[in-house]
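Record type: monomer structure entry
Structure origin: computed from sequence
Chain ID: A
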Amino acid sequence: MPPAGKETRRPRDAAGDYREKTAYEISRLSSRMKEGRHPAPLGDPTSGIVLVVEQPVGPRAIEALKLSLKAVGLPEAYVTYESTGLLAQELRATEPQALIAIGAGAASDIDAIDYPLVRHPFSEADPGVWFPWTKGTAGLLLPALAPALDDDAAKRRFLRAFLTLRDLAPSA
């Protein structure tokens, strides 16, 4: 029991503080995206996994991506979009351990933010092969999603590279 007049303080929860900070920042950024008529991000910004999708992206592509993420065991991965003008702030807020560019436009958008301490730019990456983007973040370039929705060869290329994400799924 604490002495009279003294309050007990609960110990701080660093993980909880991080989740609250990230949720607050992403909520602000999401509102700005909606104001700019961009789609709102999906998933959990504290998952450690950020996918940046090349625009334009419609409901069919989003649904296909959600199903694909679920199939590889990553339904909570955070999904955002290129060309919003807010990618640098999103990356600072989410601090991803894995950053995935879906399509050349997304790769260019990531490279254009001139993120500090980049070891290997997305524009020089081989699709479907992990690389060290920064010291603490692995990068992965995937082919564009939109062509894979209607073309069998593009679908096979996309899925072959996409299945690399299984490396990030929690062990069952």
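Annotation 1: The CA atoms of residues 25 and 54 lie 22 Å apart.
Annotation 2: Helices lie at 14-35, 59-71, 87-94, 104-112, 152-162.
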